[in-house]
Input
Amino acid sequence: MPTSSTASSEYSATSPSLIRRVATRDPEAWRRFTRLYGPLVFHWCRQQGLSEHDAADVMQDIFVSVARAVGAYEDRTGSSFRGWLWTITRNQLVTFVRKRTRQGEANGGTANWQQLLNVAESLSDDPDQFTSQFEIDALYRRGLELVRQEFRPRTWEIFWRNVVEDQPTDAIAGEFGISTNSVRQTRSRVLRRIRQELGDRSGSGGADA
Output
């Protein structure tokens, strides 16, 4: 963990986002990425009626597709990385279910796989239609866990009290002997770093100052 004397210099304001690092085939970035998004992708697959075994198989195909396509990902206005990831997930779901449907037809047919295929082919572009608030909260909790070590304990404590525990800004400022503006800046800096880790390129800035 960075010490108070090194934290400000260890993380640059121009440090690349997690997604850009994944695109460069950085093994550590890929480990962080799968830890961050793996549970969400698995949830999406299960939501569409796949068994745990089939969902795990499709998830592997999804991450292969991500590895191939992430270099071309562009963060457009009104779009999100989560939406981009859902598009890949949906496409792989259709491919998987279509294959199983053909296999079922060759073996005498199966109404269940045909029904799943009909659903998969008509899925919305909006990932949030298939994502519970619990899963979204869990995604952000994983993001918090991944970036926490990048901040000084004092910085993290200020952020945590203000954002997670919803303590008043002026009360935190008084306790830590800083201005209310400093509390707001700390909150903004940590949130920006979390967005960056989640793949939002609009989030910029260093981890600590």
